[in-house]
Amino acid sequence: MPISAERKKSFRTIGHKLNPIVTIAGNGLSEGVLLELNRALDDHELIKIKLGVADREDRKALVAELVALPNVELIQEIGKVVILYRANKKANPKLSNLHR
Fold first, then answer.
1. What whole-number distance in Å separates Cα of residue 16 and Cα of residue 56?
2. pLDDT tens for residues 12-43?
3. pLDDT score of 100
4. Number of other residues whose CB lies within 10 A of the CB of residue 22
5. DSSP 2-29
């Protein structure tokens, strides 16, 4: 279920202050990157990702792959930085970027 525009705006505000947790470079979504990405989404719910890919079309394809992951919502995409959200009902409040 898509999140509301108001909630997305508040997530963008929170995401602006975050540092990138995952960097995806030329190898794309390798198995190791996917494991780390899923761990980060489970722990933090809202994460910032840096895309180390120079070509704009390749970045668009990579973002499409990220959004295709289960229950992942694209919050914002600016240049080489993407903010993603995936709800976790059992999120640890000490780790989550939303429960502070």
1. 22
2. 999 999 999 999 988 888 899 999 999 999 99
3. 58
4. 19
5. PPPHHHHHHHHHHHHTPPPSEEE-TT-S
